[in-house]
Amino acid sequence: MTAKHHHEINGSLSADCMTLLEPLLSIRHYADGELIFARGEYKAGLCIVLEGSVKVGNYGTDGRYFLSKVLKPNESFGEFTIFSKLPRTHTAEACGESKVAYVSPGKLKKAIMNQPEIALQLLQSLSTRLHMSLEVMDDIKRLPVAVRIAKLLHELNREAGGLDVRSLSQEELASQLGVSRMVVSSSLKELNQLGLINKAYRSIQIPNTQKLLAWIKERQQIKDLL
Amino acid sequence: MTAKHHHEINGSLSADCMTLLEPLLSIRHYADGELIFARGEYKAGLCIVLEGSVKVGNYGTDGRYFLSKVLKPNESFGEFTIFSKLPRTHTAEACGESKVAYVSPGKLKKAIMNQPEIALQLLQSLSTRLHMSLEVMDDIKRLPVAVRIAKLLHELNREAGGLDVRSLSQEELASQLGVSRMVVSSSLKELNQLGLINKAYRSIQIPNTQKLLAWIKERQQIKDLL
DNA sequence: GTATAAATGTAAATAAGTTTACATTTATAC
DNA sequence: GTATAAATGTAAACTTATTTACATTTATAC
Q1: pLDDT tens for residues B86-96?
Q2: pTM of the model
Q3: B218 interface with A at CB cutoff 8 Å
Q4: Which of B196, B113, B142 is nearest to A67 (CA)?
Q5: Does pLDDT of A1 surpass 50?
Q6: Chain A residue numbers touching B39 (CB-CB < 8 A)
């Protein structure tokens, strides 16, 4: 991919967007594990993670937990409660001490009418996230778990800014991918033996990002993009 | 779900939105199977299906085809090429004689700045589609194929306006769900034996929508929304 | 009508991932 | 340091879906 065409794929809100939204925000603090929104609630509003993280997922009738995504600062959720009048379909909980901003539907819509740049920013975030979501769905359909784990690790590594992925349990990886912990364990063993990762207790290092990426690309099943 | 809260979940563009966008559209006709955009292309632009349908998917390096979605009139695609400057990640092909509208990035952005209502409409479409996509991903993680087929049939049936789903091969269903034709065949057999569908050659009828929905809800694994 | 192509049915062998169960390692609280 | 909890390793039994292979049914072109 040429430099000209290289763009970070990231669904979080840009600094510009945060500046534009700042006057609209009501800020709330949450303790670790505290409920932010529950599945089924009709209270609409855009939420933006400012500090800490937010776990979005659902509890099955049998008590099992299905994780959808762990949101980090500048990531938003709940757009559809504003623009599509749908109820909350996922439960959001603070993951560690967290600071979350809230924007009411009325305020946001009014702001968009006055400052359409806000809309452009939100459109960027939503279109990127839709795109990422569709890509992940494609991956689920065609890639074995080991490759999907490799992609997730690479992604987490990139987001964290090239650092090693500390304090990340295999349980969490499994939850994030929607697979069992056991298959994560054996896949990581495989990646480790190939020298693509260095695994330790609650920690995975990627010694060579390029090498990992090359390994993934070989297994993508579809033609590479430029 | 109360009437007050009932909303059709649908990612397509509203009639209002189509009216707003009308002056911006360049229209093109495509023959059956004709290429609209190929994976990797950088030509940005929003596309809206006006007539016929558009198949969005990708061809694997081994020739296998992975279908993402079949788009029907008033459904759009390619937003992320405008708002996120990403290349086309999927190949779009006409599926039968089709009429597709095209909006250039410049025109669309300018129109949004002048008429922010357009942005609200696009935000609705995108947030709904993101939401639907995340729901499907949840389903993939926790539901057996038979239930996912039932949900897809119910959805197709609803979209088609309560009619039977004609001219729908099991191959297409399999492609859409990303599973093999054989498991679709046996799942349909199961649904048929339960009296939830009537299947025939290239056609599936749903005799009782409520009954099918009830069967699905029993198997959703998570608490029903209201 | 008949031949052909498309779609569907079915079943055995295989593969991938889950579940269950328990051992082992590592961190942390006291 | 030691006890305890959390995380990880591993393997067998099981489940689900794929692959391969072929038979059968249905539509369509001639």
Answers
A1: 899 999 999 88
A2: 0.93
A3: no
A4: B142
A5: no
A6: 222-223, 225
